[in-house]
Design brief:
Length: 651
């Protein structure tokens, strides 16, 4: 049985060697079994072009190995050395306003730069050659957070690469003109080299151009990853990953990364000031599981506060454990932190660490050591699936497209609706999977589409087939409006869902800022209203006020063996969203855990049930089994202390 991987980023180059011995002793004490090394050490191991100094890295790899701690070997390409920027000024990142960004930080490089790619290939080759067969190296950590600060570059090399990418995608410039609808404003191109990168421009830039630019920018990072992966494969058989930022890096479409990594790993930091930040954590974990199509690992999270939010709120007692075990509950087979020992110098000295500035006589250290100990008892969950019979649709392309300029309302925000529906399900203790609109949905009793603005013809057919075959689909407004080029589907809105929903929209009626309206069911809506015309569906509730008073607001359409539901306004928790979802879940036969107190997260993973109490009260949760951490057997009611976690193994 494989243990849960446990550890963090380790940056020994920031410390004198005598500290390394203490580090390794404490790592063993805490049960650390994997550390990420060399994520940012390019300037140290290659002090001048072609000159290498391996002394520190060699010594630390041997020390870790001798102590049974595995190495997740980094490639340091997200922080190129100063000499490279000086020798090749053309690698510097150019932003949309045409400013060339200075050095002194990390990431400020153009992802399309040939000189940068060549330097990456060279240093990665040297590292892989030196450590590729070392038994300590268990995993490769390629780059760091692709797209963190350089998703897009607007230099000449990038523009040229974009033209090449378009030529490959469309073959013929007329196909591009057709796909992009360039007859509009006569924005026709006669050759690929006439296409410009969408840098700062007058308003109304062709949205299809913007979407392809986003796809291209994503793909340039994938290209760099693949190149590094191939170089490593020449020297090593160890698996490789790169740390994603799901879902907080809007510029990366992680669906387009499918199949690139051997292990999906994710970095997640609480948005500390959000009162419901534990729900956002769960959403990130569920979405990461969808990208991985199974188990995955946390590559970075924090023991307590970060240093880059407006107010860096420290974790409260027990929160480190709750956060960590919530990730494990939702599919994580590894829990790593940024970072092992708090840095004294540099930009991140106020960031928490496994070993804080205060040392071992601290709550953080005690919690870290206790967590490492607990994880050893949870090896049985490694590889196990998470059970869900509800799916929420997620698509980065809808996110991108919905938030381009000149939409019917600035209040149309992709994550706003997804999070509203996700949170309502979370509060009902319903575990969900995320799924792409073109994925096989037949395993789900209920599918929720909170914000599917873009739906391709294939997705439209898929959703219709899902309902006809007995599925239940809940759709929120402004879904199914356009195809993958941001072109409106033919006929009335919502073209991709008209037949499935049994209705059409005569006109959108976005609301004023902070305006709300009521429904005759007692529900309330925000943001949106529209003139719904029924064509097969029935009205479950009607608008009682607002621009569409008297017209359908919530509808239901029985189609084939299934049912499609529609909400024509923004419902929220406490104003109708819970009721809509409860009605759909009842109709779909979705079973919800009964008798679980509010604020308690309940997730089944394989033969284990995780009970996570986010409240300040001791609670009891119905259930039976054996506490996997302390061996207590329960039959009927399981006590979970205020802020505590119980992992229950099936008896
Ligand atoms: C991540 C990054 C780490 C560290 C961390 C701090 O974005 O990968 O290197 O900077 O943030 O929270």
């Amino acid at each position: 049985m494989q243990d849960i991987r446990f550890g963090g980023d380790y940056n020994p180059e920031q410390w004198p060697e005598e500290i390394w011995l203490e580090d390794v002793r404490l790592m063993r004490e805490a049960g650390v079994n994997l550390v990420s090394l060399g994520v940012f050490n390019w300037g140290i191991i290659e002090p001048a072009p072609g000159e290498y100094d391996w002394s520190g890295l060699d010594a630390i790899v041997e020390l870790l190995h001798a102590n049974g701690i595995g190495v997740n070997m980094g490639t340091p390409t997200s922080s190129p050395p100063a000499w490279l920027r000086k020798a090749h000024p053309e690698i510097r990142l150019v932003d949309a306003e045409g400013r060339t960004l200075a050095g002194g930080s990390r990431h400020g490089v153009c992802p399309s730069s040939p000189a940068y790619a060549e330097a990456c290939a060279s240093i990665v080759d040297k590292i892989a050659e030196r450590y590729g067969k070392h038994p300590a190296v268990k995993l490769w950590h390629i780059h760091n957070e692709y797209g963190w600060a350089n998703v897009e570059c607007y230099c000449e090399a990038s523009a040229t690469a974009f033209q090449g990418w378009l030529a490959e995608k469309y073959g013929d410039v007329d196909r591009l003109n057709e796909a992009w609808g360039t007859a509009f404003w006569g924005l026709v191109y006669r050759s690929f080299d006439q296409v410009e990168a969408p840098a700062a421009a007058p308003p109304g830039v062709n949205p299809a151009l913007r979407l392809d630019w986003k796809r291209f920018s994503n793909d340039e990072h994938v290209r760099n990853y693949r190149m590094q992966r191939e170089v490593i494969a020449r020297h090593s058989e160890a698996p490789a990953t790169t740390n994603f930022m799901i879902p907080n890096c809007e510029g990366m479409d992680y669906r387009r990364w499918a199949g690139t990594v051997d292990v999906v790993s994710n970095n997640h930091y609480l948005i500390a000031e959000r009162p419901d930040h534990q729900i956002e954590l769960s959403m990130s974990a569920d979405l990461t599981r969808a990208v991985a199509n199974g188990p995955w690992m946390v590559m970075e999270h924090s023991t307590s506060a970060v240093n880059w939010q407006p107010r860096n709120i420290a974790k409260t007692t027990g929160e480190l454990r709750r956060n960590s075990l919530a990730h494990v509950a939702r599919g994580a087979d590894g829990l790593m932190f940024f970072q092992w020992r708090a840095s004294r110098a540099g930009a991140e000295k106020f960031h928490s660490a496994m070993l804080p500035h205060g040392g071992t006589d601290t709550e953080v250290w005690r919690d870290v050591a206790a967590l490492g100990n607990d994880l050893k008892k949870l090896s049985a969950v490694v590889g196990a699936d998470v059970a869900a019979d509800v799916a929420v649709l997620w698509d980065w392309e809808s996110w991108w497209a919905l938030e381009l300029e000149w939409r019917p309302s600035v209040d149309l925000k992709y994550r706003e609706r997804v999070e509203a529906y996700y949170a309502a399900l979370w509060r009902e203790h319903v575990t969900v999977d995320f799924a792409h609109p073109e994925a096989d949905l037949s395993g789900y009793r209920l599918v929720v589409a909170p914000s599917s603005y873009v739906l391709t013809d294939a997705a439209s057919k898929n959703l219709r087939g899902y309902v006809e075959n007995g599925g239940h689909l809940v759709v929120s407004y402004f879904s199914g409006i356009v195809d993958e080029h941001d072109t409106v589907h033919p006929g009335a809105h919502p073209g991709a869902l008209r037949e499935t929903l049994g209705l059409w929209i005569e006109e959108f009626h976005p609301l004023h800022e902070r305006e709300s309206l009521s429904l005759d069911s007692g529900a309330a809506g925000r943001i949106w209203s529209e003139h719904v015309r029924l064509d097969g569906a029935e009205a479950v509730a009607r608008f009682a006020s607002g621009p569409d008073a008297g017209r359908p607001a919530l509808t239901r359409h029985d189609l084939g063996r299934g049912t499609a539901w529609y909400a024509a306004t923004a419902l929220d928790a406490g104003t109708g969203l819970d009721e809509l979802l409860a009605t759909a879940m009842d109709a779909a036969g979705v079973e919800r855990p009964q008798g679980v107190p509010d604020g308690v997260e309940v997730v089944r993973r394989g033969a284990h049930r995780f009970l996570i109490n986010h409240t300040g009260q001791d609670v009891q949760v119905p259930g039976a089994g054996v506490d996997a951490l302390d061996g207590t057997a329960y039959d009927g009611r399981v006590p979970v202390r205020a802020g505590g976690v119980v992992v229950l193994a099936d008896a």
